[in-house]
Structure of RNA-binding transcriptional accessory protein:
Amino acid sequence: MNINHYLKIAEELNVRQKQVSDTIELLDEGATVPFISRYRKEVTGSLDEVQVAAIRDRVQQLRDLDKRREAILKSIKDQEKLTPELEEKINGAETMSVLEDLYLPYKPKRRTKATIAREKGLEPLATKIFEQESIDLETEANAFVDEEKEVANVEDALQGARDIIAEWVNENAELRKKMRDLFINEGKFVSKVIPGKETEAIKYKDYFEWTEPIKTAPSHRVLAMRRGEKELFLMLDSCPEELDAVGLMENMVVTGNNTSSEQVKLAIMDCYKRLMKPSMETEVRLYTKKKADEDAIKVFGENLRQLLLGAPLGEKSVMAIDPGFRTGCKLACLGPQGQLLHYDAIYPNEPQRKTAESAALVKHLVDLHKVEAIAIGNGTASRETEQFFKSIGLPKEVLIVMVNESGASIYSASDVAREEFPDLDLTIRGAVSIGRRLMDPLAELVKIDPKSIGVGQYQHDVDQTALKSSLDDTVMSCVNGVGVEVNTASKQLLTYVSGLGPSLAQNIINYRNENGPFKSREDIKSVPRLGDKAYEQAAGFLRINNGQNPLDRSAVHPESYALVQKMASDIGTSVTDLMKSEELRSKVVLKNYVTETVGLPTLKDIMDELAKPGRDPRETFEIFSFQEGVNEMKDLKTGMKLPGIITNITNFGAFVDIGVHQDGLVHLSHLADRYISDPNEVVTVNQKVEVTVMEVDLNRKRIGLSMKSDPFAERGKGKTGGGNREKRREREKEPEGDLAAKLAMLKGKFGK
């Protein structure tokens, strides 16, 4: 690889060149991001996952750029038009857009107006005019009049010459660069409703007459306007003022003040309208879309990480409930490892309201299966079902927990669920998923397409390849960060372990089924097709809690077992005792074990693991309850203070479940008493918060919430007048009604 690329990446990421080159070497050898950041700290200089992934992605971009550069050089060389000067410019191009600008004059084209003019022999006239010297324009043009070539008169000749000049101007790389900067820095998005579609497009009302600088437009508004355009409700323009653009072109191209210069100006205007503007607008739209996608994907990835790393209840006996009214509540009893022990249905709610029979069955099953917690999905009839369970006199030690069921229905209809429970109804599968999600959110949520979990922002509008790559990175990071018990993990969970993938994950399951549980990490080498490289990448992240070697339940990599054994031997103890005793561990002098390949970072990681082998980095589970008596939107009153759980975070605020089957929105301006630009500064998914009800719209199912200590302060003595709100929106550059528009996303996003 080009050494300049190493330097460039190092400078961009503010790391050393050797860190970049060594990391790229590991990546090229097939090492994964989690493995490199966890087990190759000496090689990378302790780069974290984010830095390693950034190097991986940037080097791929630069390699793609080099590949395109080679193709362009070959194409121009084949045309015998490659000059040393042009080759130097192409080799110096640092972005794809600059590279394509340089290639544009040599790029094979379909038949253009300029092509036709050249075929008529008008290029010499165009050259003469473009020199912008004082000439007798009519006499010069008249010399090219030729009826056989379909140049009927002087104007035909001049028009053809202008067509050629327009193409020359359009292909000027320096001019295109400046024009691109003008579009991005001075351009504006101008959105208008398509006439006659005002009623049909009401959800895009904010954008019926909307103008906003391209440079500062936030990602959610860019994606909203593009969606409105795609759905044929909006017309969207993205250009600077025409006078500014044409003026820029004239300043760079026009050199005289005569009749030839006037022809050049006409060609420039034609170039801008017919060639430059459409081209630049396409580029700018792609640029802003890519930027908006990156923002949206980043939001989604961070939300997903927080959701996946939600606190697990752990290995408990759980009764899971998929609540409902008419069809009843589907019930599933699960063992501590998530195995299905029993399923049934109860009808505690309207219209059947078989309260006594339902209570008797529940109590019987709680006693029979020694149920320690009850997981209730937070969908339809959830609060009513919760109230039923709290009223039937269950033992106080039995936890009753509301569980976010977003995506459970997706799982229940999936191939994964059908394979696991081929004979069960979808609703029972959904109940099982709800229960397992309480026990271990990570292990259950990996079975669902992350896009269906409901923590994204415009996830169906962004680049799907980039989205999948980012979400896969996030899931892999979480799975490997927590570690996986190889004897109980599902295929889906194993798939995300470093170095494995679907095929090897299935081979592990098959081997486990045929040979019984793995007794040691060494046994994993016996899995068919799991070679040395895959074992190296995966072993440290796979746990065997009751294995023969105590280190097998830790994150210590097998390649370091001999080192740990030496540590224990040197102080006259065993590995088991070393793991149990802080006093013994304190006797180990780490610097004595530093080698060329093992440094203090790895040694410190090993000692941390010996102290808490296989520790779970997730938070400890805490019980949460919604406000008693607030079960539906009609129970809400302005000014109420309620407990809630953050379910989704976007660039414009956070959605909060307050237990009324409809999430409310805490707008960015109401997330804190101070000004914040990013919701992630103050909130996380699954965070328990207290909110104040600001607005309730029953007809449109919209709830406005606040996390401010005095949310009504701006309204003046509790009044809800719109004046201050208008000023606030203007100050925050939010379109009027934007809060309502964002709330409208809830129905489609969460299906509630």
The first strand starts at residue 188 and ends at 193. Residues 633-750 form a domain with the OB fold (Dihydrolipoamide Acetyltransferase, E2P) fold (CATH 2.40.50.140). The chain has five domains: 3-106, 113-299, 318-439, 495-611, 633-750. Residues 717-752 have pLDDT under 50 and may be disordered.
